Amino acid sequence: MIQIAPSILSADFARLGEEIHAVEAAGADLIHVDVMDGHFVPNLTIGPLVVEAIARVATKPLDVHLMIAPVEVYIPAFVKAGARILTIHAESTIHLDRALNLVRESGCQVGLALNPATPLCNLSSVLHLLDVVVVMSVNPGFGGQSFIPHALHRIKSIRRMITERGLNVSIEVDGGIKPDNIAEAAKAGADIFVAGSAVFSQPDYGAVIRTLRANASA
Description:
Elements lengths: L2 E4 L9 H10 L5 E6 L11 H10 L4 E6 L7 H7 L3 E5 L6 H10 L3 E6 L6 H4 L7 E5 L14 H15 L4 E5 L7 H7 L3 E4 L1 H4 L4 H13 L1
Parallel strand pairs: 1-8, 2-3, 3-4, 4-5, 5-6, 6-7, 7-8
Helix pairs in contact: 2-3, 7-9
């Protein structure tokens, strides 16, 4: 099932509640929340208090993407704040199995993000622990970047791995998704699509979300 997850990183933070209501009314399936620490990635965004405020406003599940390290100490706070899907990066901990199990035990769906140069062999031993694999199609840290085409090969490889193991794991693609490239990502095997500037830079959120969904479903 195709799901569109607008990233609030590109929203107007002075009107964040209104922006969330607007993309939900426009057809968003998830609200994607990028958490950056200025250490693991070169940018600072938001913490658990803001996620908690967003959770009071949003009616769609919060897809919280933690770009922070070390990550384990923060997992309980973001779960408590209202995350429904909690994604961590493979490089954000030296105890990946432990961290992923902590997310699961906390009651969230479990996501693992792979940067463009993260070897896919890192996924092999933990794939069975996941609900979502997030393929980064940009180097994380900033919105508005261009899609890295090699991500398509990585999506195909991961989809093949999931199918061969008979698992029920979604593939989310994050970075540079627009109406003119979403079809390729969907064909490669992705089914959740993070779209930040592609949505929030347009005057009609509903029109662009409908176009994204139609192109991904074509």
